[in-house]
Amino acid sequence: MNNRIKRSPLFYVGDKYKLMKQIINLFPKEINNFYEPFVGGGTVFLNIEAKKYCLNDVDRNLINIHKFLTENSSNPNKFFKSVEKIISKYKLSRSYKEDIIPNSLKKEWEKTYFARFNKEGYGKLRDWVNKNKKNAPLILYILLIYGFNRMLRFNGGGQFNLPVGNVDFNKNVVNALSNYFNFVQDKNIVFSSKDFRSFISEKEYLKNDFIYLDPPYLITASEYNKFWDHKSESDLLYLIDKLNKKGIRFALSNVTHYNGSKNDLLIKFIRKYKIHKINSNYISYHNNSKKEITEVLVTNY
Ligand SMILES: C[S@@+](CC[C@H](N)C(=O)[O-])C[C@H]1O[C@@H](n2cnc3c(N)ncnc32)[C@H](O)[C@@H]1O
């Protein structure tokens, strides 16, 4: 379906992959500096042409993975060799290369055999990370790829606590990595890991710059929504108004209605701007069920 749309190799929960075609059509055609204060997995910037990219997310581990992938983009062979080393040390499956899962396991656990096969090795790798307090981006990336819902999740004590997922290093991961490497190789990209308030306020914007904002949504549920509250939401809306007053083009993704609740603050705010409805097929992060949702892209151009 999305043939020409690239998906980030972080396969980030709530990424914009399925909505990219609709969103890109609403983006400006010419972009000087492109700003993303909530870059997440990066699927959006991977599909944008700009002179320079300033990409930010408060999640430091996530940004370290982006930096690591970007640094390795000119030598994918070296990157894949390091991946292979860890995968074989921890005896994880890697279906992009070979199928090592016994048929007996596939028969017994028809729908969950990847999770069954990788559980032990994944657990050992996770224990190693937690014991040695080593958040090396490569290892975190591998944990993410084999982890449940492909997330980065730590408990209050800083221990990585995501269980194994029913996935492995497959062709989709390799394709997404290759696309990422090809794209970032010759681009001018600056990553940062700040709170959106400092990131947005400190920039000196120029004509034809463009800022795309995809914050956590106040009325939906996700791991990264945990710390997002009314104060964050109103600070963000205030900063967007300020950008608008300076004549800077912006686009904001958000959700006005979700499963019986609505975001009144947002609904009032967006009346000042152009509201584009986005057809979204939101799947609940809790139980994979489909939800009633009104997703919008709000722009000032
Ligand atoms: C909806 S996700 C962005 C998804 C992204 N568009 C994609 O395609 O992957 C929102 C992101 O905001 C980040 N975030 C949450 N609070 C933040 C804050 N105060 N400042 C900056 N980023 C924040 C989260 O870590 C998360 O990655």
Low-confidence stretches: none
The named CATH superfamily of the largest domain: Vaccinia Virus protein VP39
Can you tell me the CATH class of the largest domain? Answer: Alpha Beta
What gap, in angstroms, lies between the N and C termini?
28 Å
Seen as an oligomer or otherwise, the chain set is single chain
- General form: globular
What percent of residues adopt helix (DSSP H or I)?
A: 25-40%
Strand and helix order: HEEHHHHHHEHEHEEHEE
The count of helical stretches stands at: 10
Overall average pLDDT: 93
C-alpha Rg (nearest Å):
20 Å
Tags for this model:
10 helices, single chain, eight-stranded mixed β-sheet, binds S-adenosylmethionine, Adenine-specific Methyltransferase, domain 2, 8 strands, Rossmann fold, 301 residues, globular, alpha/beta
Write the layout of secondary structure elements.
Layout: H1 20-25, E1 33-36, E2 52-56, H2 60-71, H3 76-89, H4 103-108, H5 113-132, H6 137-146, H7 171-184, E3 189-192, H8 196-202, E4 210-213, H9 230-245, E5 249-258, E6 261-262, H10 264-270, E7 274-278, E8 293-299
Parallel strand pairs: 1-2, 1-4, 2-3, 4-5
Antiparallel strand pairs: 5-6, 5-8, 7-8
Helix pairs in contact: 2-6, 5-6
The site of S-adenosylmethionine (SAM) has 21 residues, from loops.
